[in-house]
Specification:
619 residues, mainly alpha, two-stranded antiparallel ribbon, 23 helices, 3% strand
Length: 619
């Protein structure tokens, strides 16, 4: 049985796809008598089957070498496009993570969206998302990975724009789509530019080619920079990071997936491409630079936000920045651990705060407070999610950050400093959120905010338990180092930075200091709160330039192109109006016209013989 499920694990994406297709009839109201709820139940059952299938397949493939499945798709004119699927513990483990988190998010959505009119459409889009993510996990071909990423970009646009009657939702969906399209366009350039160099898009063959490749540094540098642009957009990295903030206009259940596994799709492709990207030191340095800037910048921005969902979205961008650093320094295992730890903790954080947003009808942290007594389970879930995200032993992110920092301790200590700073700033941000939401006195919107009902509580408790047991799971799979082999200095720095960030922020926000906190330098506070004025910089540079070019092109089109066409038309009208008098029916006028034409033609032909003398006579 296990062997059969392993051999058919490539069918897992079709579970979600079938579930999404079966949910469609409830979306436009084709099926009315049952109401929209069966759409969710059908999708939920298919996701459960996918999770069980992938879990059994993971047990069957563990400790076995990777296998590949090839599905011919197109072969013509020297171009062979074959869908390559990799069946390995890592890819099947990714299937388990994707289907498991989707299953929990869909159960959560049953409670969160019980009265929502877009139930059928929402679940069909979740099925599309899950199918795309599962296909990406198995795909071993760069070209088809790009195609799948395009599908996920479309899914982001549709999910963020679910409540399309709200103007902010429409704007957020549009901005998220366009921002990610910029990265996707450069990624397509890189995909096409890589083919003449390597002659393949298969990840395994690309790694073998990169091991012995001798290519022009400039060419591979440009191709590599184009290849990392796509993951930059998917992982919300500077300067393509604004979409994740805009995407918070969507429903909370979709935010669970977006903050956990959707952003990881770009990181997954980045890790797969690491052998190729390491061919160029410029590309590796660019990944480290982008990751460092995003990690530090997003951590600072998260501290200054008052929107609960946006606080968490910037923390996700920061941790994806650490993934970029890990890939840039060729630490793939640390990158995978970071992706896993972030997925679990980020999903738990969104679940714990999503219920508060649901029945408090606000996500402004300044309007909440005092919820610890009313919602202790949500508070505990938030604490566990926070500790799982920062470097607090023995939870998940501690081991990922530990492995990354330990590998850089001797060679690049300045990057270790950035990791420690990001960890401390994330601890500050999460402690601030906890204090404003669960601590202090209850504000007006939090006076009546009981715990959520079981469809939202159950997945949160399951994920809470898994987050606490994640270190034991990793230890049983021999994925964690022994305590005796740890770099004690790095471990202490991570531990103390977490304690320092939590303690300092707790003292400030749980004391009687007036809230909100005002920095002495208002300009600095505004700089951080307004995302370092990145939207304004975009408006004054790129958007302004595009607008001016568009206006100039419009002027050329209206006054030059249209002007020439209209002038030709005017001459035609004038010619027609003039020539109509030549059809008077008078023979003598026709003879005069012929004589005049012959005279003009004769003067033009004989001009070389008498024209010069004529001009000299005049002048």
């Amino acid at each position: 049985m296990a062997q059969f499920l392993l051999e058919t694990v490539w069918l897992v994406p079709f579970y979600a796809l079938v579930g999404g297709l079966l949910a469609i009839p409830w979306s436009p109201g084709i099926i009315r008598k049952t109401g929209p709820r069966p759409a969710g139940y059908v999708n939920l059952i298919m996701t459960l089957l996918a999770f069980v299938h992938s879990t059994i397949a993971l047990q069957a493939t563990w400790n076995y070498p990777p296998q590949e499945i090839f599905i011919p798709w197109l072969s013509t004119a020297g171009l062979d496009l074959t869908i390559a699927l990799e069946i390995s513990p890592i890819s099947v483990g990714a299937l388990v993570a994707v289907t498991g988190l989707n299953l929990l998010a869909q159960i959560y959505a049953i409670g969160y969206m019980e009265m929502d009119w877009g139930w059928g459409r929402f679940y069909s889009l979740l099925g599309l998302f899950e199918a795309g993510l599962c296909a990406l996990a198995l795909c071993n071909n760069l070209f088809f990975s790009y195609v799948i990423l395009e599908i996920l970009t479309l899914g982001t646009y549709l999910l963020v724009g679910l409540w399309f009657s709200q103007p902010l939702v429409v704007t957020g969906a549009r901005d998220a789509f366009l921002t990610k399209r910029v990265g996707d366009l450069f990624l397509l350039m890189g995909v096409l530019g890589l083919w003449p160099l390597a002659g393949t898009w298969n990840y395994t063959e690309l790694a073998e080619w990169a091991a012995t490749a001798d290519v022009n540094p400039t060419v591979i540098g440009l191709v590599g920079l184009a290849l990392i642009a796509g993951p930059m957009g998917k992982c919300a990295q500077f300067p393509l990071h604004l979409w994740l903030d805009e995407a918070m206009e969507g429903p909370v259940p979709s935010t669970i997936l977006r903050n956990s596994v959707v952003v990881a799709s770009g990181a997954w492709v980045l890790i797969k491409l690491q052998p190729v990207l390491s061919l160029s030191p410029i590309v590796s340095s660019a990944m480290v630079g982008v990751g460092a800037v995003t990690a530090l910048g997003a951590s600072l921005i998260a501290i200054a936000q008052i929107d609960l969902k946006r606080c968490q979205s910037y923390s996700v961008s920061a941790y994806m920045g650490l993934v970029f650093i890990a890939v840039g320094v060729q630490q793939d295992e640390a990158a995978l651990l970071l992706v896993l730890a972030n997925a679990v903790s980020a999903a738990l954080l969104v679940m714990s705060t999503g219920g508060i947003i649901w029945n408090s009808i606000t996500q402004d942290v300044t309007q909440l407070g005092g919820l610890w007594k009313r919602r202790p389970i949500s508070g505990i879930a938030f604490i566990v999610g926070s500790l799982g995200l920062i470097g607090f032993p023995p939870l998940g992110s501690f081991w990922a950050l530990m492995e990354l920092a330990d590998g850089l301790w001797e060679t690049r200590p300045w990057l270790v400093g950035i990791i420690i700073a990001v960890n401390a700033l994330t601890a500050v941000s999460l402690t601030r959120e906890f204090a404003l939401v669960f601590g202090g006195k209850a504000q007006q919107m939090a006076q009546r905010s009981p715990e959520v009902h079981w469809p939202m509580m159950l997945p949160m408790m399951i994920l809470l338990g898994f987050s606490l047991n994640l270190p034991f799971v990793l230890q049983s799979l021999s994925l964690l180092p022994d305590w005796a082999n740890l770099n004690k200095d790095v471990a202490l720095l991570l531990n103390w930075s977490s304690i320092f960030g939590c303690t300092i922020t707790g003292v400030i926000y749980f004391s009687n200091i007036p809230k909100p906190i005002r920095l002495p330098w208002k300009g600095l506070q505004d700089l951080i709160a307004y995302d370092f004025y990145t939207p304004n910089i975009y408006r004054m540079t790129i958007i302004f330039t595009v607008a001016q070019i568009s206006q100039f092109a419009d002027m050329i089109d209206r006054f030059v192109v249209d002007g020439i066409v209209n002038l030709v038309g005017l001459f035609s009208l004038l010619g027609g109006e003039s020539l109509k008098y030549s059809t008077s029916g008078q023979t003598q006028f026709y003879a005069f016209t012929v004589l005049l034409g012959v005279g003009v033609l004769g003067m033009w032909v004989s001009w070389p013989f008498w024209g010069v003398q004529f001009l000299e006579l005049i002048f």
